[in-house]
Amino acid sequence: MITTTTDDRNWSQGFSASHAGAAPRNVRDLTSHADIVVLLPDPASAQTCLDLADDAADAVQDNIAAVHIGADPLSMLVSAEEIELQMMRDLEEGSTHERYEHVRQLFEEWKLHAPHRQDLMLGDCQGDLRRCVSTVCRNASLVVTPYRGNLDARDAFHDVLFHEGKLVLVPPASGYRGHLLDHVLVGWKPHDHARRTMVAARPWLAATKRITVLCVDDKPNRHYEKSAREICHQLGLDAEIVVTSSSGRSVGNTILDFGASTNATCILIGAFKHGYLLELLLGRVTYRLLSHATIPLLMSH
User: With contact defined as beta carbons under 8 Å apart, do 288 and 250 qualify?
Assistant: First the structure.
């Protein structure tokens, strides 16, 4: 791995590559032209994220960049208490350099399973996590990153969704079973964040074999259905519009149950209308889906 120091705050960025002669100078070069960036903060979810990114890229003929990302306590611009917490977690999870090495080995093994992966390189960004996320995701149209896992995984997910405002593809905790775009289920509400998500996801929706837009609407005015038809027409998408009531269940459970009954392979939603903390406190739709979905989630805030 080559490591370069970019400023006096001493956060680092580097790369590992299968073809060193063709390697980029640093992680900025690796990700600058990538349409899809897959973040690999946790070895436990690395292969799942890579498989998911590979399918997302194949569907729309995009290119991907894979980057290990890790908080380095000595380079973080945070309080002394936070640095101490990070150093304590290193005792349990291993240092960020050790986690990188584990991810690198998994990445090299994953590359062996398909010829088109042979020229892919693994980037490494260590230091202040928010700065790392901003650097590697800046030009991406889609970011694949886990929601669960170690502290880096949880922090990176939060940064990508809320600070970078990216379209995010999240693997389920149970593992990815393939067939990402066989049947995308859209959990629709006529809110701005839902519209933004559908616009951002249009290239993948256009490549989907089947789209179902589910309107969980307990009101009789059919506003959800009308707005769903309008956005699909505007985006040129051929979708089935289904209107149902929650029947006393949570909206999240209604979406999950409908997805299971129709063999959905991916769920698209506008994420966290009320913000992350309030969603956690109230047990709202996004948190419910993140906690219980068994298929990938495509979302933006």
Answer: yes
CA angle in degrees (0–180, nearest 5) for 23-28-34: 80
Is pTM, for the whole model, over 0.85?
Answer: yes
Distance of alpha carbon 158 from alpha carbon 135, whole angstroms? 15
CA distance 234 to 244: 23
The DSSP bridge pattern shows strands 64-71 and 36-39 to be parallel
| Residue 2, pLDDT score | 27
Name the pairing type of β-strands 2-5 and 12-16.
antiparallel
CA atoms of 279 and 38, how far apart (whole Å): 25
The closest of 126, 128, 127, 163 to 143, measured between CA atoms, is: 163
Question: Which of 84-88, 165-169, 229-233 is least confident?
Answer: 84-88
Token pair of 283 as six digits:
């047990």
Sole residue written with tokens 């390189």: 121
What is the C-alpha to C-alpha distance for residues 143 and 200, in angstroms, rounded to an integer? 12
Name residue, tokens 């929601």: 147
Which of 55, 162, 234, 272 shows the shortest CA–CA distance to 213?
Answer: 234
Can you read off the two tokens belonging to residue 248? 């006393």
Does residue 67 or residue 8 have the better pLDDT? 67
Task: State the Cα angle at 103 between 100 and 107, rounded to 5°.
Answer: 135
135-to-27, 32, 116 alpha-carbon distances in Å: 8, 9, 26
- Residue pLDDT, tens place only, 235-258: 999 999 999 998 888 999 999 999
